[in-house]
């Protein structure tokens, strides 16, 4: 626990010192195990103009267990569950793929990368993934409408 | 406070501040801090021994490349790596309490054990702990009585108590009397030596002095005498100002805003304006004349140049003509010399041409052709000499 807090604090100061583009972080409690994240939609993506709130939850035995990333803002995306949880399906966040050497910054950047380019082959919302593959125009239309409705 | 400081036993090498930024290659991939007790795996990754042990409890894979890994596959890293991280310069973990020590990491245990003034050590007089810098032959934990408020406190806390003890004696800033800290405020309100401003300072009296002189001053103070009058004036002034402001507002509402150009006009009377206009006239005239003058100058210059060119050409022409004529004369002279040489009589004077020619110039009838040429040649010769 103490070790986890130490590493989390270290990573936080690292991110603060060199903040990544389009991502802001804000720990909720003093013990730093929950962070509010804000990701702006990448300019060249269909999510441009939207601001997405996310919640990063770090387990007490971090970094031996992976953090959990969930969307608080609704988003039309094949890799994000379309429910209250908004869980994000990020390969490196699965327990069998997680590596303790992986950093929070890499996780956040990968999440933003997924906004830029969804990964329909590793989808949690299969219907959205289907649409993304077969009728991209319709997918983009809905996604943009959702950005307007929820992420402004 | 002494209990929170770090001692050799509570030293956590993984939680130190390093003097300089540490190379990422010397940091453990799990805790992201410089390696402590470095070990390496069969897949050649290096970790802190405690970090990899904990990681293997969760998952039997390497935390970097996820290859299967068992505790038996982990062994101590080369001594060079351990030396590299042990030589890193760290701050003493008690630096937040004031310890200025920085040293190589492996020396830190010795520093905390032997030197650090901020480590809690056992008190010599009792079972308590005390910071090494405060430890002495006597126990600082025994209770002592404050000489002022007669409450008791530990000797070690006495210094803090003295700062806040309400009964401690403090001297008045103005008189030489001594008072307890709780009474000093009340005393200062009545102290005879306290410096006071005159009670008429609000109407401008600059006097300041001890309270005991105040009554005497008040009796003689001209400001105090005039006080009622000054107050009455101030009151009137205030009402007038208010009234003035109200009136100005009314005027602003009633009068249309004046055009700004009108204000400047009345400064000049008619005469001045006439003079100004005339001056303007003259100035434009002058400018016009200057322009035409310079134009004429240019024309003049052109004319002069043309003229001189023409003259030069003429002179050159004339010079050419003279050259031609001289050639002719030469030829003629030569033929004449030859003729004279053939004549026996004039043979003696052949060398002196000019004398000869003047002599012949006087005698026009004697020579038909030659004297004529001579006459033409004479003025030409003169010009050439010029």
From TrEMBL, chain A:
Annotated Pfam families: UQ_con
Keyword set, alphabetical order: ATP-binding, Nucleotide-binding, Transferase, Ubl conjugation pathway
Domain UBC core: start-end pairs: 3-152
GTP-binding keyword on record: no
MF terms in GO: ATP binding; ubiquitin conjugating enzyme activity
Alphabetized InterPro entries for the sequence: Ub_conjugating_enzyme, UBC, UBQ-conjugating_enzyme/RWD
Enzyme Commission code: 2.3.2.23
ATP-binding among keywords: yes
Top-level lineage group: Eukaryota
CDD domains the record matches: UBCc_SpUBC14-like (cd23815)
Top enzyme category: transferase
Matching PANTHER family: UBIQUITIN-CONJUGATING ENZYME E2
Protein name (database record): E2 ubiquitin-conjugating enzyme
Automatic annotation (TrEMBL), chain B:
Superkingdom to which the source organism belongs: Eukaryota
Record-given protein name: RING-type domain-containing protein
Pfam families xref list: zf-C3HC4 (PF00097), zf-TRAF (PF02176)
Alphabetic keyword roster: Metal-binding, Zinc, Zinc-finger
Annotated RING-type domain residues: 28-66
Origin species: Tuber aestivum (summer truffle)
PANTHER family in the cross-refs: TNF RECEPTOR ASSOCIATED FACTOR, TNF RECEPTOR-ASSOCIATED FACTOR 4
Biased composition (Basic and acidic residues): 375-386
UniProt region (Disordered), positions on chain: 340-386
One MF term in the entry's GO annotations: zinc ion binding
ZnF (TRAF-type) residues: 161-205
Comp. bias (Low complexity): 346-363
Domain TRAF-type: 161-205
């Amino acid at each position: 626990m103490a070790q986890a807090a130490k590493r989390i604090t270290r990573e936080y100061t690292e991110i603060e010192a060199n903040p990544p583009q389009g991502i802001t972080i804000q720990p909720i409690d003093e013990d730093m195990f929950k962070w509010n994240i804000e990701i702006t939609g990448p300019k060249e993506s269909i999510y441009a103009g939207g601001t997405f709130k996310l919640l990063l939850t770090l387990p007490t035995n971090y970094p031996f267990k992976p953090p959990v990333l969930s969307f608080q803002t609704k988003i039309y995306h094949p890799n994000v569950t379309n429910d209250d949880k908004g869980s994000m399906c990020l390969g490196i966040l699965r327990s069998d793929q997680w590596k303790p050497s992986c950093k929070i910054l890499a996780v956040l950047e990968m999440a933003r990368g997924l906004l830029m380019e969804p990964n329909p082959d590793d989808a949690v919302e299969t219907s959205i993934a289907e649409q993304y593959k077969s009728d991209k125009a319709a997918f983009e239309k809905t996604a943009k409408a959702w950005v307007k409705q929820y992420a402004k | 406070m002494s209990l929170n400081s770090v001692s050799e036993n509570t030293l956590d090498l993984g939680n130190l501040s390093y003097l300089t930024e540490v190379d990422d290659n010397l940091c453990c991939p799990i805790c992201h801090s410089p390696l402590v007790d470095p070990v390496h795996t069969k897949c050649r990754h290096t970790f802190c021994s405690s970090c990899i042990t904990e990681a293997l409890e969760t998952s039997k894979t390497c935390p970097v490349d996820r290859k299967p890994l068992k505790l038996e596959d982990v062994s101590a890293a080369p001594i060079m790596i351990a030396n590299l991280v042990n030589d890193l310069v760290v701050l003493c973990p008690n630096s937040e309490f004031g310890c200025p020590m920085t040293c190589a990491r492996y020396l830190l245990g010795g520093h905390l054990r032997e030197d650090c003034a901020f480590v809690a050590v056992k008190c010599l007089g009792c079972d308590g702990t005390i910071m090494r810098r405060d430890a002495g032959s006597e126990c600082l934990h025994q209770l002592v009585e404050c000489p002022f408020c007669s409450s008791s406190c530990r000797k070690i806390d006495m210094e803090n108590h003295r700062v806040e003890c309400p009964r401690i004696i403090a001297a008045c800033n103005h008189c030489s009397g001594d008072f307890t800290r709780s009474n000093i405020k009340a005393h200062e309100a009545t102290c005879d030596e306290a410096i006071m401003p005159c009670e008429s300072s609000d109407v401008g009296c600059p006097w300041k002095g001890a309270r005991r002189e105040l009554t005497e001053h008040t009796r003689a103070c001209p400001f105090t005498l005039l006080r009622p009058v000054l107050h009455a004036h101030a009151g009137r002034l205030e009402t007038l100002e208010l009234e003035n402001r109200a009136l100005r507002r009314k005027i602003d509402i009633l009068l249309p805003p004046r055009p700004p150009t009108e204000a400047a006009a009345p400064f000049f009377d008619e005469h001045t304006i006439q003079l100004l206009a005339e001056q303007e006239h003259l100035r434009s005239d002058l400018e016009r004349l200057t322009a035409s003058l310079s134009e004429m100058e240019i024309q003049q210059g052109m004319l002069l140049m043309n003229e001189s060119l023409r003259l030069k050409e003429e002179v050159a022409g004339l010079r050419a003509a003279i050259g031609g004529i001289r050639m002719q004369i030469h030829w003629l002279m030569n033929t004449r010399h030859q003729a004279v040489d053939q004549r026996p009589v004039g043979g003696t004077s052949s060398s002196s041409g000019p004398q000869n020619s003047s002599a012949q110039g006087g005698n026009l009838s004697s020579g038909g052709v030659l004297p004529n040429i001579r006459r033409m040649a004479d003025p030409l010769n003169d010009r050439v000499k010029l």
